[in-house]
Amino acid sequence: MTDAAASLPADGMAGSAANGDDERLAYRSIFQRLFIRPEVGAVIGAIGVWTFFWAVSGTFGTAGGSWGWIDIVASSLGIMAVAVSVLMIGGEFDLSSGAMTGATAMLTVFIVKETGELGGLGLPMSVSLLLGLAVALGIGWLNGTMVERTGQPSFIITLATFFSLKGLKLGLANRFVGQIQVASTEEASDYDFWRPIFAGEWERNTHQLEARDFFYTSLPLLGFTILVLAVAELWFARRSTPNTAGMIQFLVGLAFGVAGVGLMHGTDGTGGNVLSAAVITVGVLIGLHGYCQWRFEPLVDRGTIQFDATLRNRLALGIVLVVIGGAVAMVIDSSSEAQFVFPFTVQGIRAIVSVGLMVTGLGLLAMVSQAALSINAATKFVVTTALASGVLLVAAVVFLDSESAKFRASLFTILLAGALIVFAWGLVVSRFEERRFVDRGADRSGYIMMIVGVLSILAGIAFRLLFVTEAELLADIPPTKTSVRVLWFLAFTSVMVWMLARTKFGGWTFAVGGNKEAARQVGVPAGRTKTQLFMIVSFAAWLVGVLVAFRINSIQANTGDGKEFEYIIAAVVGGCLLTGGYGSAAGGAIGAMIMAMPLIGISAARWNTDWRFLFLGVILLVAVVSNRYLRLKAEALRR
Amino acid sequence: MTKKFRWLAALLAIVLFAASCGDDSDDTTDDAGDDAGDEAVDQTQGGDLTFHIITHSDDGPFWSVVKRGAEAAAADLGVTVVWKPGVNDANVMVQDIEAAVSEGTNGIGASLPDPAALVGPLQDAVANGIPVITLNSGSNDYQDIGALTHVGQTEVVAGNGAGLRFNAAGATKVLCAQQEQGNVGLTERCDGLAESFDGEVVTAFMGLDADTAEQQNTINATLAADPDIDGILGVGPVITMSALRAAEDLGRDVTIGGFDMTPDLLAAIEAGDVAFTVDQQQYLQGYLTVLFLYLNVTNQNTVGGGLPVLTGPGFVTPDNAAAVVALSEQGTR
Questions:
Q1: Other C-beta atoms within 10 Å of A306: how many?
Q2: How many domains does chain B have?
Q3: Helix (H), strand (E) at residue B218
């Protein structure tokens, strides 16, 4: 076992010992609970891929670039990936899902068209949508029933459906309109009513909001604050009676933080920034400490600093690596494109060596700080302070030696904030009692705070993506559009996540995917559940088909063909197991994002698009291997 | 009965003789004309010439236009055309070619989607004295076969034509957007564009036709990343429409050209949003193949002087779009 894992179960074991009676109720720390979620690998991967393309391209991080990959996710890939994930958790595949998107779209257009032999029914869109939905659900029902009745693998049954649909699409299109393309949706009498619902658009450049940057700054900051407090809520043991002095301290810290942010907005220039950063730092430290003082049990025995030999060596090695990495970055010429060793240039070597050394060093320090937790609080504090200093050093290197304004501003700020949070966290962890028992009340409020925090961050980002400021308009930024498709994607994903997590049907889905016969024996209607899962996929295909039909008003017979594997890849990248019984709907959505980002990123970076499939292949491989690793770790934790 | 038999034998003799002489010897051609000229004219007046058009047609929208061209020529000339769609199966085509030879056809028009499988049987047909013309695909192999000529469009020449259009529009940097990766034909279109276009050409794969959202967003990102691009050539009709939507979203003034035709692309050209689309005028591929075979059999004419006869690039522009739309509804464009 590796060190990270060795240190983690230490907490888990202590917890089960304290709890004693039922191992399923054994206490797990918040990080362990996040760690065993199936989508954790995908979240880390998505952040990594985003950061990579943000770093290498000029337009990927802008509103235009963001809406680009979000639209690919929202228009087809995301909705289907979520549905296919749910089906995969239920232990089945649907290879007809791609062709079905085109089939439902084509059917919708056929029904509303006025011309063409037989094809032109000329019915209103409302009727067409309902008929299309009925047919789609029928195909899903057929898929499910065939799989159930024949006992054949769904891989084969839905492959047959795939070919049938593909043939039907081509055949009917040629038969009725003499073209492999079917146009046009706008012939429907009530087209104007449905268009905003399925293809409504939002033009960013016509929505000016001068207060945008206020929301863009304050909402994410608020969100991060709430997130940190949520983790504290989940991590520490509550006091029996709240401490009023602590609450006052918390409010003072909050006031400092708000004042600091306000100061940063109000001033320009380095002096003002440094001052406001200092004010914010004080605010964070006082505020977090105050919050903990107010609500949590202080730690009585902090112990004395003690290191064993391994810990000390690793600590030293970590610091040395970070320092050497920083030195390499400072010493080697960052602009030299001279060849060093094929295929690397001098600047390439510099980037690889320095980043590699610094990341390894920080990783070592993080591992040591995990391990130090099991020694005592005082040691933990020293080690986290070392880690925070390491991050600070990296931030300094970035600030001093980076050419691009993007890195100097954004990356530097993020690293600075990271160092601050690590330090503040080390401070409170060493001063307050860790909760090693189950507290449902604290868990619930912690989770609600987490959700509020994440939503607040997303809302802040949404303000940035949806509105322009006058300054941007004056700088002539290109127009950017988004559409109501994003809302459909979010709605569908939310419903699926809720369904899997909160409903009986969700539980049945996991059960039939894990072991169908066992599920049946405990009373789960296995056949019906699987058929309904197929119908969820065909519903999603109908939705995507309608979105496509409204988007381009004409449908090509091959629409969606061959995309079914991309949906499955997205589900696997998102943490679903091909064998069923494990995975998450949100993971499928994040997997779709990981798949979509390189499509836009490679173009934004102006690289040759030939590389995109290599990228997808590498992502798939890395995702499968790391998801497997994380899952095995998670299962070890559960025991 | 005997009279008819003799008559058939004479016909066969003419065909064999004519085809084996081909285009190399004027003297023998003259002799053949002298020997059998009168009878041949009689036969064609009776409409007894039969030509087999054996292609990889799937009878889709593209090939149905080729078929109408061949049928129109048959009606105009008073000959019989047997249309044999191979539906992308070279095996079926080989069988059809062999059957046509043994039925004693007067001429074969064939496409070459799979030269390795089809060159041999067509060489056999030529050796049996049957005139052969390749159409649509086969511009690299028609000489090996000994075919009279090739009737079609070469992708490079089509790309050349598009490049000249972009020059005329004053474009300086053109994105050649492909909807398939590693398709030789599409790459040749982009190579042809780069040959004749004065500015810079960026060739890139922009996503499959099966996902137009992906195409549109990828093109959008490419345009946003490179402000110098002021022209896009979509090498298929679907990706051309995706390019139009991407340019409209960005509000960029970009000259857009495309390949082939769909109803929405024709509508966009008519509206002036797309500058042109390259049309390979496949109606000609059907019509001219039959006409050239007829002229060869009846009059010993050869067309092309050993070079292919190009049916494209024809262009559909805002000027002629309305007329082309009307003609495509009749099924001849």
A1: 12
A2: 2
A3: helix B212-225
Residue of B64, B212, B217 to mutate, testing the A interface (most A Cβ within 10 Å of its Cβ)? B217
Closest CA to A176 of A96, A130, A107: A107
Q: Are A609 and B204 in contact (CB under 8 A)?
A: yes
Domain boundaries, chain A: 65-203+484-638, 206-474
Tens digits of per-residue pLDDT, B99-150? Answer: 999 999 999 999 988 888 899 999 999 999 999 999 988 888 899 999 999 9
> Nearest 5°: CA angle at A556, between B158 and B163?
20
Which residues 203-262 of A are in CB contact (within 8 Å) with B?
none
Q: What is the DSSP string of A105-148?
A: HHHHHHHH---STTT-----HHHHHHHHHHHHHHHHHHHHHHHH
Domain match, B124 and B48 both:
yes
Inter-chain touch A64–B224, beta carbons under 8 Å:
yes
Put simply, the chain B residues between 149 and 188 with a CB less than 8 A from any chain A CB are 181
Q: Is A609 an 8 Å CB contact of chain B?
A: yes
Chain Cα centroid distance, residue A260: 30
Pairs of CB atoms within 8 A across A/B: 124
Residue B212 sits at the chain A interface (C-beta within 8 Å): yes
Q: Which amino acid is at A414?
A: I
Q: Which amino acid is at B51?
A: F
Strand partners, B176: B203, B233
B264 touches chain A (CB under 8 A): yes
Residues of A in contact with B59 (CB under 8 A): 174
Supply the CATH classification number for the domain A65-203+484-638: 1.10.3470
Residues of A in Cβ contact (< 8 Å) with B237: 181
B50 phi, psi to nearest 5 deg: -125, 125
Instruction: Report whether B229 contacts B223 (CB < 8 A).
Output: yes
Q: How far apart are CA B69 and CA A588, in angstroms?
A: 51
Say how far apart CA A417 and CA A223 lie, in whole Å.
Answer: 14
Residue B281 near chain A (CB below 8 Å)? no
Tens digits of residue pLDDT in B199-210: 999 999 998 888
* B217–A71 CB contact, under 8 Å: yes
Whether B79 and B160 share a structural domain: no
Mean pLDDT, chain A, rounded, equals 85
Rounded Cα–Cα distance for residues B56 and A71 (Å): 38
Residues of B in contact with A605 (CB under 8 A): 225
Closest to A281 measured CA to CA, from A254, A257, A251, A247:
A257
The question of ipTM being above 0.85 is answered as no
pLDDT score, position A624: 87
Going by pLDDT thresholds of 50, 70 and 90, the confidence category of residue A489 is very high
The single residue listed with the structure tokens 């090498």 is B235
Q: Which residues of A194-219 are buried (b: 16+ CB within 10 A; e: fewer)?
A: bbeebbeebebbeeeeeebeebbbbb
Q: Do the Cβ atoms of A216 and A460 come closer than 8 Å?
A: yes
Does B36 lie in the same domain as B144? yes
Q: Please state, in angstroms and rounded to a whole number, the distance separating the CA atoms of residues A429 and A380.
A: 8
CA A129 to the chain's CA centroid:
32
Asked if the structure places residue B144 within a domain, the reply is: yes
8-state DSSP, A52:
H
> Measured between CA atoms, how close is A570 to chain B, in angstroms?
15
Q: Within 10 A of A319 (CB to CB), how many other CB atoms are there?
A: 18
Residues B275 and B288 in one domain: no
pLDDT digits (tens, 9 = 90+) for B280-330: 899 999 999 999 999 999 999 999 888 999 998 899 999 999 999 888 877
- Domain boundaries, position B187: 155-279
Angle between helices A485-502 and A63-72 (to 10 degrees): 60
DSSP tag of A339: B
* Structure tokens, A110: 């056929």
Tokens for B232? Answer: 């896009």
Report yes or no: B22 at the A interface, CB cutoff 8 Å: no
The SS3 of residue A555 is strand
Q: Which two tokens stand for residue A148?
A: 């159930």
